């Protein structure tokens, strides 16, 4: 369907009083047999599925807001809204609703929302009191007007009647004209009454009134009225702030006057809600729901208008990455993009997806790579916030970009490495920026949120990239802080002290092993990373301390969890050095696990050969098979077969373990350096090892 007049977005109000986007489609009004009445139908533009089917009930109160919105409630706490792409389409559906209900389409509300208790009271009131009579708009009647406005707030029907009267008589502009007169003559009492009046009118919660109050020629007078809170000794200076302090900067000239007006209006209305109006009480908290919706839909419209202006955004990113751009200008550009991203949080997921794809196509990530490495702290902070929006929305999009970078640049300016360096070099004493960047980095390297598809495994590719190009940058401070000082007495042979960073390195290794991920286990095996751990255990001797407990717990975990690859590696390479430790049964237990697995492998091979020998196969045996069976029949007790199987197992297992002792990875150097110690100079003979006390156990060769 190509008719954009009927193109709408369907919104529902959630429990947090925020609008959820249910999808985009085209609306029609037609008779639905099942509902027995004229109904509003919205079918999704993507697949034609039904997004909304709502009967136009004669008793439902529909409201038209901001020329392109129709809002109504279908049940308790279930509010709906249709946001039209074009005003003409909104007018057509509004006329249809009014036609079904027999209402005047010139009004912006079709019904008075009356609950049962209110309706009962309403029936008891004399007919002549149904109308709200507004006093003449004069200085001498301001107290009366204020009393009237505040008195209706507790009654939904009277709020509706007052709102209708204010709209039909053009009363708002008359009140604001009176405000200017009172301020000229310094009529403080009158100004205090006007504060109560304007605050009360805002609490009527009517979009039609907001359209008048927040228009260009009225909004500053509304702000002026709200400066004169009777509870304050001196009035606030909100207008001075909005006109002189808060300057709107067009980093790139905005040629669309409607867009510029919408930005100004949204900022000022947000200021009224967040700064000027006091925190509403429990009784008042729902009075400003329409104001919240007003701001929400304004932001949606601003983001959409900016997103559609490709020339504007292209110029923004061109200047942002241009070396000739002045620092002050670049700061303004970065802050603009940050606010742009903040506005996008009002969008629903599918709309944010399109938004961030637009930014990605325009080069947001290469731009961040440049500005995050700048010296300007404000620029870096704003760029970090932008990066945060991108990572939180789509880590995969960021990963895909950074994996393509090595083809175009060197390691030092890779985006991930820039992030790591900013995290390490954070000048904030409280490390606020470092903590934020740490969280983002953790999100990016978390295997749990990495995607896997038929043709591509993101986890394997990105982690391989990270270890190859980024791990050395991340671990550089650790290596610098744990480098061994050969002249240090604390680390000289025979010292009773241990490198204080050793337990930190152990915790790191324990965390990795705790993942029980063979990807990491292979790194540990290939890097021979258990050697410095076992050296630390042997150097510690019989001292019962934190280091001893941490190392024993590490090996106990491997035993209990039966991590076969690590058990085989430890027993094959280090058991001779560990077998003399008898104050715990951990290492004998590891040896037992190892032998059990070896027996299982042997039995499996034995079973495999026996199944091969005694199977019944329809095909004839070839000559080699016949000879094999004939030779085997000559064995009296099968010992030759068993010996051959044992030899085969030993050979294959030995080759398997030999393959694990390959080239060291970069991670090897990092972790080995953390807990390395000087070799003992005096090596004892093998026949003396068993007689030595545990305190004098030899170190492993490094």
From TrEMBL:
- Gene3D superfamilies per the UniProt record, alphabetical: Pleckstrin-homology domain (PH domain)/Phosphotyrosine-binding domain (PTB)
- Known SUPFAM superfamilies for this protein? ARM repeat, PH domain-like
InterPro entries in the record, alphabetically? ARM-type_fold (IPR016024), EVH1_PP4R3 (IPR055236), P4R3-like_central_dom (IPR006887), PH-like_dom_sf (IPR011993), PP4R3-like (IPR051137)
**Regions of compositional bias (Acidic residues) in chain numbering:** 626-639, 677-691
Signal peptide extent:
none
Q: Which residue intervals define the domain PP4R3 EVH1-like in the entry?
A: 5-101
Q: Which GO terms describe its cellular component?
A: nucleoplasm; protein phosphatase 4 complex
- State the family named in the UniProt similarity comment for this chain: Belongs to the SMEK family.
Q: What is this protein called?
A: Serine/threonine-protein phosphatase 4 regulatory subunit 3
Organism whose genome encodes this protein: Pundamilia nyererei
């Amino acid at each position: 369907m190509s008719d954009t007049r009927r193109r709408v977005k369907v919104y529902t109000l959630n429990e947090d009083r925020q609008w959820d986007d249910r999808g985009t489609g085209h609306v029609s009004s037609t008779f639905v047999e099942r509902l027995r009445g004229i109904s509003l139908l919205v079918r999704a533009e993507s697949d034609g599925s039904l997004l909304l089917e709502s009967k136009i009930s004669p008793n439902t109160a529909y409201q038209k807001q901001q020329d392109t919105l129709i809002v109504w409630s279908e049940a308790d706490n279930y509010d709906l809204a249709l946001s039209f792409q074009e005003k003409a389409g909104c007018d057509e559906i509004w006329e249809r609703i009014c036609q079904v209900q027999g209402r005047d389409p010139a009004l912006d509300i079709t019904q008075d929302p009356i609950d049962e208790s209110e309706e009962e009271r309403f029936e008891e009131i004399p007919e002549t009191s149904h109308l709200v009579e507004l006093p003449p708009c004069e200085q001498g009647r301001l107290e009366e007007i204020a009393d009237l406005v505040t008195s209706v707030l507790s009654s939904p029907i009277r709020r509706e009647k007052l709102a209708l009267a204010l709209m039909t008589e053009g009363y708002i502009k008359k009140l604001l004209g009176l405000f200017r007169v009172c301020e000229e003559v310094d009529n403080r009492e009158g100004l205090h009454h006007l504060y109560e009046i304007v605050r009360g009118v805002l609490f009527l919660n009517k979009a039609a009134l907001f359209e008048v109050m927040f228009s260009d020629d009225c909004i500053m007078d509304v702000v002026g009225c709200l400066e004169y809170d009777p509870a304050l000794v001196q009035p606030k200076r909100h207008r001075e702030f909005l006109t002189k302090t808060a300057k709107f900067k067009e980093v790139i000239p905005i040629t669309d006057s409607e867009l510029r007006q919408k930005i100004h209006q949204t900022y000022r209305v947000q200021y009224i809600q967040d700064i000027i109006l006091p925190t509403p009480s429990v009784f008042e908290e729902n009075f400003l729901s329409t104001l919240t919706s007003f701001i929400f839909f304004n932001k949606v419209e601003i983001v959409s208008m900016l997103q559609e202006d490709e020339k504007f955004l292209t110029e923004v990113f061109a200047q942002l990455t241009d070396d000739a751009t002045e620092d002050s200008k670049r700061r303004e550009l970065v802050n603009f993009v940050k606010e742009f991203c903040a506005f996008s949080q009002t969008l629903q997921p599918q709309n944010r997806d399109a938004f961030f794809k637009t930014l990605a196509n325009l080069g947001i990530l290469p731009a961040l790579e440049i500005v995050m490495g700048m010296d300007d702290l404000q620029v870096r902070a704003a760029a970090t916030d932008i990066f945060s929006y991108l990572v939180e929305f789509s880590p995969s999009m960021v990963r895909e970009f950074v994996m393509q970078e090595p083809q175009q640049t060197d390691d030092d300016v890779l985006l991930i490495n820039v992030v790591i360096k900013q995290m390490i070099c954070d000048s904030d004493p409280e490390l606020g920026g470092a903590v934020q960047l740490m969280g983002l980095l953790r999100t990016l390297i978390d295997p749990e949120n990495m995607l896997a598809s038929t043709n591509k495994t993101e986890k394997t590719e990105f982690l391989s990239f990270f270890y190859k190009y980024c791990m050395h940058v991340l671990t550089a401070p650790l290596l610098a802080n744990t480098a061994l000082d050969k002249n240090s007495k604390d680390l000289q042979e025979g010292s009773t002290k241990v490198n204080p960073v050793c337990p930190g390195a152990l915790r790191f290794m324990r965390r990795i092993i705790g993942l029980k991920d063979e990807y990491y286990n292979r790194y540990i095996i290939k890097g021979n990373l258990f050697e410095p751990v076992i050296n630390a255990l042997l150097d510690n001797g019989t001292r019962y301390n934190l280091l001893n407990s941490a190392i024993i717990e590490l090996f106990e975990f491997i035993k209990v969890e039966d991590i076969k690859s690590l058990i085989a590696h430890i027993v094959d390479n280090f058991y001779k050095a560990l077998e003399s430790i008898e104050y715990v049964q951990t290492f004998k237990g590891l040896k037992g696990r190892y032998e059990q697995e070896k027996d299982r492998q042997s039995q499996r091979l034995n079973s495999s050969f026996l199944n091969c020998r005694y199977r019944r196969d329809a095909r004839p045996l070839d000559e080699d098979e016949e000879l094999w069976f004939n030779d085997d029949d000559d064995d009296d007790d099968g010992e030759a077969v068993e010996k051959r199987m044992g030899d085969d197992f030993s050979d294959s297992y030995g080759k398997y373990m030999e393959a694990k002792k390959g080239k060291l990875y970069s991670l090897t150097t990092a972790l080995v350096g953390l807990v390395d110690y000087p070799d003992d100079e005096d090596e004892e003979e093998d026949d003396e090892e068993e007689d030595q006390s545990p305190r004098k156990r030899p170190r492993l060769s490094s």
